[in-house]
Structure formats: structure tokens, C-alpha cells
Amino acid sequence: MGQKVRVATASLAGCFGCHMSVLDMDERILDLVERVDFDRTPLTDIKTLGPCDLGLIEGGVANAENVEVLREFRRQCKVLVAVGACAVTGGIPAMRNSVPLAEVLDEAFVHGMGLVNPGIPDDPELPLLLSQVHPIHEVVRVDYFLPGCPPSADAIWSLLTAVLEGGALHLTWAQLRYD
Ligand code: SF4
């Protein structure tokens, strides 16, 4: 492919572990930057999103800002990939789904152990929490799902190579085996 592929990434309700896995590609990143231009991504700290070939989303959808960012990625990216367990299923953040949100907030900010100044934060700049954490496909259409917590650098490399070369994505058993 002569023209560089434009890639954007975002972390919604995630731990940045999936982004760390991107960095784990080590020297292959040098090959990547020859073939890819990065748009909005925490890897470059670019904050605005333009039209992209590929969007990689880490994390579930836990608040109103996550919804906004995700919808913008869907509008701007030709191909959107759910990267990692949190984006694919809600993952660890979704463990709060079995508890009413009011109880979650109470435990975290009012009656939990070790709190110095109890009180639920209410700064208007804070994004409103959703009552449940959602996998991203419950909010927008998703083209591919890359499982793992996090997916390995090899699996992410395979995904990027398939997109760069316009081929089908084939993941080996080793890339999908987690025990
Ligand atoms: Fe972190 Fe795992 Fe979620 Fe990725 S899938 S954001 S590594 S918890």
C-alpha cells in the first residue's frame, strides 16, 4: 500500500493495558510508523479526530463522555476494532453492573474504608456515569473484535498487518490462548 494508513486509538473505561500492548510491539513500531500516520491517540497525545482508516478502541462504555468519543470514532473511522476484553465484553469495569450505581458511589465515596473527605464528587465537568458499563458493540457498530486482557503485541501486530496489507486477519491458536 503506497499511501499511509491513518490510525486512531482511544481508551474508554480501560486501564491502558491494551495500549501498553501496542507499545510491546517493540522494534516493529519502527516499521509501523513508516506505514501509518497516527491521528487522535494517547500514544501521541493528539486530541482531535479526523477521518481515519482504522480506529482501535480499548475499554468499555461507562460514562457519557465514553459514548460521545465512541460515536465520534464510529463516524470518522472506516474500520472500528474492539481491542481487549473491556471493549469486547465490558470486562473488569462491568463487574459493577451487578450492583446498583447508587451503592457503587456510596461504597467508593461515602462509606468505603479509608476515605478522608467523604462525599460524591459533583463537579459539572465530570462526565455522568451510566448505570451500567457496556461493551462497545452495544453502542455502535463494530467491525472486528480482538479478545484478550490485553491482546498480545503479536495479535495486535497481526491485526495491523492485515489492515495494512488489505488481507484477512488470521490469528493463531497461540495468539488466542490465555491459560
Ligand atoms: Fe486493561 Fe485488560 Fe481492559 Fe485491556 S482488556 S483495558 S488490559 S483490563
Automatic annotation (TrEMBL):
Residues 15-162 form the NADH:ubiquinone oxidoreductase-like 20kDa subunit domain. Its cofactor is [3Fe-4S] cluster. It comes from the Bacteria. Keywords: 3Fe-4S, Iron, Iron-sulfur, Metal-binding, Oxidoreductase. Pfam families: Oxidored_q6. Transmembrane segments: none annotated. Gene3D superfamilies: NADH:ubiquinone oxidoreductase-like, 20kDa subunit. InterPro entries: Hydrogenase_assoc-protein (IPR051349), NADH_UbQ_OxRdtase-like_20kDa (IPR006137), NiFe_Hase_small_N_sf (IPR037024). This is NADP oxidoreductase. It comes from Thiohalocapsa halophila.
